[in-house]
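Hi U.,

Before I forget, here's the chain from the pilot set. I'm dumping it here mostly so it's searchable later in email.
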Amino acid sequence: MPQIDPKAFRRALGNFATGVTVITAQDDKGNRVGVTANSFNSVSLDPALILWSIDKRSRSQDVFLEASHFTVNILSVDQINVSNNFARPVEDKFAEMRFTEGAGGSAILEQCAAHFECELYQTIDAGDHIILIGKVIAFSDNGKAPLLYHQGAYSAVLPHPSLKVSENVAEYRAQKSRADLYDNMHYLLTQAVRAYQNEYYPKQLAVGLSVSEARLVMVLYGEHGSTKEEMLKEVGMPMREINVAVDALKAKNLLECHDKLLNLTKKGHETAAGLCDIAVSHQSAVFDHYSENEINTFKKILRELIARDTP
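Structure:
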């Protein structure tokens, strides 16, 4: 039987989109831990059981195994910073977090999409991970859009292009009321992004890079260099996936790292130029029937919307 390449295996698994959670717990000595995980899944409705898995190398493993309870915090779409915080090996991950104590002292983080407070029900040794099964004793559903994770990058829920318009939406359109769906800016923006990416991503993937690798290359293109930490907000990826993408790009001779600065190699610049050509070509095809003034106005609005979210 051929040996499985761990990196290739992980990349293949990345095709399965998941939600993003932060699992928290506290042992009887008061040691509080939290880790970012996308291995969360349901197991049973009766009894109500869920599971997730933790790497045996994790420094938090002992606390999770000794704690009587843990809480699964399902992150909302605007909590990338929370995901990154609990994915990094910082001294006190809870220092800047707002939370209340749940079952067994586990932290219930604020502003999440949902929470599941669990009693530790069973543990299973599984390769380089330990599977923890929890019995749900309390939960909350806050109705927020979840943060997603796909191909090593954060993502968000968008309607599938094949879905037909619901009868309610059709009725709104027919009435042409002021609440018309096609006057809803959020709907228009999300649908526009979906439509734009629908043809753009296949062209980008044809270069042979994953979405996360291509994103890293594009951000670094034209720059003198940047640290991994500085890349966090620009690429919209957790540090773990930045590390994976950096390793993959190094192996492909597209990236070098000197004194913690990331720099594209000559081959990397050529690849980035190719990606830019794809981006410009697709942009031209989509916007060719608009005037230059219309395009500049559109860009101005987008830049101002982005600036509103910049600290």
